[in-house]
Amino acid sequence: xxxxxxxxxxxxxxxxxxxxxxxxxxxxxxxxxxxxxxxxxxxxxxxxxxxxxxxxxxxxxxxxxxxxxxxxxxxxxxxxxxxxxxxxxxxxxxxxxxxxxxxxxxxxxxxxxxxxxxxxxxxxxxxxxxxxxxxxxxxxxxxxxxxxxxxxxxxxxxxxxxxxxxxxxxxxxxxxxxxxxxxxxxxxxxxxxxxxxxxxxxxxxxxxxxxxxxxxxxxxxxxxxxxxxxxxxxxxxxxxxxxxxxxxxxxxxxxxxxxxxxxxxxxxxxxxxxxxxxxxxxxxxxxxxxxxxxxxxxxxxxxxxxxxxxxxxxxxxxxxxxxxxxxxxxxxxxxxxxxxxxxxxxxxxxxxxxxxxxxxxxxxxxxxxxxxxxxxxxxxxxxxxxxxxxxxxxxxxxxxxxxxxx
Length: 406
Hints:
The chain is an alpha/beta fold.
């Protein structure tokens, strides 16, 4: 495979159902892998580094990796008791010989991640064996390549948004807008140099729904992103900014970072907010995760959303604890930046609930396909029906799937 700037190697896995005719594909994955050593020429200056990093694992190397992870889990993981339980599980697996067959670092990293998920159920957590970026370009020496996309790159991604629609037919004389948000691009000053341009582009897209009479915030395909951008988007949906949303807090209770909406006069020039009073619904699935859950949770607990409507799901994925400080480990044994431990050291604490959505997800107020909505499987269809009723009868709240009149 080739990206725009560098070649990469990948492992393809295909899961088929051999019990059905024509063997339908049930799952198709492409996962990047480290450049195989056979593709590194003997005279390549990177060869020695690859040989060190890719040599077959023995018991000593596996113990080195496990010990490094145990230290982070017991000393830094945001939930101290759970961190000890996960560390104990890794030690039990290692001492019980469950890791003895692993000679490939990439496969070992996958197994370690599985074992941590089995005990901790922390979906952000992952142990990765990756190829250092500086290793991929023989002309780059030891310099790190420059990171960050161009505006043209981000424009092709529509800055994280799907196709915005304005429905003027369902409620005559009214407009019901749908705002699909697929991800939250980094847009704070500490990320990319073009952060102002990114915010302006996001603000322009949010302005397209500002004049609507009701809004469906569609997070069904949202795979998360930057919490600063979540707060920025929330600035267009909540009044009276700055409004404190949540903090990232470490295991000792210390606040590492805070997130708030912006006051209206600090939004990008020429953009307009939907505001905090008109009817708003949130659409989710069981795969809505991380930053998407952050937004759904905030709109729900601030009582800004009339309802969170699940598309068959009682709750979202339940992944709250972010990866803010991934750590490279075992560099003496393998070389620099091959083993990466993505282990959460902070958790979000919401301003209203003093809690978050980790493991439990954001609960659906209404579930498409259930209760009153048996036979209506599409969350957008359910939300549109509610919006039509409310626009005709005045803003109310949802109780047990029905509109409660004030």
